[in-house]
Write a structure and sequence with these properties.
The chain has nine helices and 17 strands. The protein is an alpha/beta fold and 308 residues long. The protein has a single domain, classed as Putative cyclase (Glucose Oxidase, domain 1, 3-Layer(bba) Sandwich), CATH 3.50.30. Helix 1 packs parallel to helix 8. InterPro entries: KFase/CYL (IPR007325), KFase_sf (IPR037175).
Length: 308
């Protein structure tokens, strides 16, 4: 089914093509300036560090619903091997095969395309089987370190977890922003807690995957208006699944990644962070969420840390 006119209208309103020049390959990460990072670092109060990544394991979040996206397969390639002879120092080595977006990750700017184009009007066919992404590869992502803001939508609704059919709206984000007691500002990385990951943490991968709350088609305009640098949440699909508009699959992906050039993340564990922010009465922190520089990659695993 062709993309509806509503999608194209929103795309025009959030489009960042050419904003940072015709050769730009990092999109909204341009908004993370030295000044933004200095201000974020100055906001550290206690130094408490909260990890936000899920463990990389073979029985991870992937259920097989997405072809080719396999959970990490860990293999030992050497075990206490005395490679320099008997009695010398022994080494153990291992290898991992996994989808780059299998667990806690960033979607890169080539993860989706629409109408034959990628961010900044690059051709979608510049992604090839052997070379990966000729442009916009995840290795181009500049250091992803900025002020993080937790928008705890579930808590703003007075619940620990949103129901599976809940489409997170701009009004939900406004309410969570009010709860946070801060205004999202240019260069911030926004983390949206729905509580959905509680299903996975309880051992139910299927309930985690489907049905899932997630971002609605209207939220990219909210992020664009505030000049958000990147967005992540605690769901498998990022946007609501099944989709809010019948047969319109992954429109938020296309608006965020293709039109805005904004990294988006999934499978972030925001449970401990949510409790800590509620207890301390503040929802901002320094966030480090560096992309692994896989050349030509369309995404990357990430081990983000919030520093309060």
């Amino acid at each position: 089914m062709p993309l509806p006119q509503e999608f194209h209208d929103i795309a025009k309103r959030v489009n960042n093509w050419g904003r940072w020049g015709a050769d730009d390959e990092i999109g909204t990460l341009n908004l993370i300036t030295d000044e933004v990072v200095r201000a974020a670092a100055a906001g550290i109060r206690t130094g408490r560090r909260i990890p936000l990544a899920l463990p990389l394991r073979q029985d991870g979040v992937q259920t097989g619903m997405i072809p080719g996206r396999i959970n990490p397969l860990h293999t030992m390639t050497a075990i206490n091997q005395e490679i320099f002879g008997p009695g010398t120092v022994a080494t153990s080595d291992d290898a991992v095969t996994m989808g780059l977006q299998a667990s806690t990750h960033w979607d890169g700017l080539t993860h989706v395309s629409h109408s034959g184009r990628l961010y900044n009007n690059r051709p979608a066919d510049s992604v090839t089987a052997h070379g990966g992404a000729a442009f916009l590869g995840i290795e181009k992502a500049t250091p992803v370190v900025s002020r993080g803001v937790l928008l705890d939508v579930a808590r703003a609704h007075g619940t620990g977890r949103l129901p599976g059919g809940h489409a997170v709206t701009p009004e939900d984000l406004d309410a969570a922003e009010e709860l946070a007691g801060t205004r999202v500002r240019p260069g911030d990385i926004v983390l949206i807690r729905t509580g959905q990951i509680q299903h996975y943490l309880a051992g139910d991968r299927q309930a985690y995957a489907f049905p899932s709350p997630g971002l609605s088609l209207r939220t990219p305009e909210w992020f664009h208006a505030r000049d958000v640098a990147a967005v992540a949440n605690d769901t498998l699909t990022f946007e609501i699944f099944p989709p809010e508009v019948e047969n319109l699959w992954l429109p938020v992906h296309a608006l965020d990644l293709v039109e805005m050039g904004m990294l988006q993340g999934q499978n972030w564990n925001l449970e401990e962070l949510g409790e800590a922010c509620a207890a301390e009465g503040r929802h901002t922190f320094l966030l480090s969420a560096m992309a692994e520089p896989f050349v030509g990659g369309s995404g990357t695993p990430v081990a983000p840390v919030a520093v309060l």
